[in-house]
Write a structure and sequence with these properties.
Oligomer: single chain
Number of strands: 3
Structural class: alpha+beta
Radius of gyration: 24 Å
Helix content: 55-70%
Largest sheet: 3 strands, mixed
Number of helices: 4
Number of domains: 2
Strand order of the largest sheet: 1-2-3
Length: about 80
């Protein structure tokens, strides 16, 4: 269960909010608009690792689209 907390409250209750962030995200708001999120450091690292993995997969997929088979290359070279 996530929680939304005004940033003014977060300033005065940071330690308990960091403890709470171990269990679920704590969204910080200012003037009723989201300005940040507190989350567990391990979860943050897992998210970064997951993003990196997805970027690697995307890069591999994009490279596959730019390649041709050996037979296609041979045919292209043979016709020149």
């Amino acid at each position: 269960m996530e929680r939304t907390v005004p940033i003014s409250e977060a300033r005065t209750h940071l330690t308990p909010l960091l403890e709470e962030a171990r269990e679920h995200e704590v969204y910080l708001i200012k003037h009723s608009k989201p300005v940040g999120v507190l989350l567990d450091a391990e979860k943050y690292e897992r998210l970064l690792d997951h993003i990196e993995d997805l970027e690697d997969r995307l890069a591999m997929h994009e490279r596959e689209d730019d390649t041709i088979s050996l037979d296609e290359a041979h045919g292209t070279l043979a016709s020149t």
